[in-house]
């Protein structure tokens, strides 16, 4: 009887260890691009020709930050431009979901002034 109890405890410990090892790590866009440098490079190509643009990844958000040097460009000018680009950025987000299999990816566009303060931003899905 004791032998059977010991075997049962050992088997339970083994199963628990196996289940813990099989637990899936949550994959986010951020972890995906860290694990796939070529994918990160391809996404960064979106801003490669613009020295005032950069890309950051946080969780499932790809944040594209534009630094606006011209102080005459205001929120009133940028918001309608973002609205016109909605289909494009929504399409990029949807393409990323399809190509990575990661649900809930968002594209956030952020415009900052020369001092680094936010002018406006918008999230696309």
Walk me through what this model shows:
By secondary structure, the protein is an alpha+beta fold. It is built from 5 helices and 4 strands, in the order αααββααββ. It has a 4-stranded mixed sheet. Helix 2 crosses helix 3 (37-44). The N and C termini lie far apart (60 Å). The relative contact order is 0.14. Residues 1-22 have low confidence and may be disordered.
Top keywords for this entry?
single chain; 125 residues; alpha+beta; four-stranded mixed sheet; 5 helices; 49% helix
Rg of Cα set: 23 Å
Continuous helix count: 5
Mean pLDDT: 82
Shape call? globular
Number of strands: 4
Structural class: alpha+beta
Short structural description:
With 125 residues, this protein is an alpha+beta fold. Mean pLDDT is 82; it is low at 1-22.
Helices and strands, with pairings:
Layout: H1 2-22, H2 29-35, H3 37-44, E1 53-58, E2 61-67, H4 75-84, H5 86-100, E3 106-112, E4 118-124
Parallel strand pairs: 2-3
Antiparallel strand pairs: 1-2, 3-4
Helix pairs in contact: 2-3
């Amino acid at each position: 009887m004791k032998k059977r109890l010991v075997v049962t405890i050992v088997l339970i410990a083994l199963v628990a260890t196996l289940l813990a090892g099989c637990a899936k790590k949550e994959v986010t866009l951020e972890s995906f691009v860290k694990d796939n440098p070529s994918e990160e490079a391809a996404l960064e190509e979106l801003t490669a020709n613009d020295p005032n643009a950069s890309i950051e990844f946080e969780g499932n958000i790809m944040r594209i930050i534009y630094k606006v040097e011209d102080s005459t460009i205001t929120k009133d000018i940028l918001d309608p431009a973002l609205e016109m680009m909605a289909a494009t950025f929504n399409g990029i987000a949807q393409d990323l979901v399809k190509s990575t299999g990661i649900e809930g990816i968002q594209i956030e566009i952020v415009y900052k002034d020369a001092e680094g303060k936010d002018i406006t931003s918008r999230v696309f899905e």
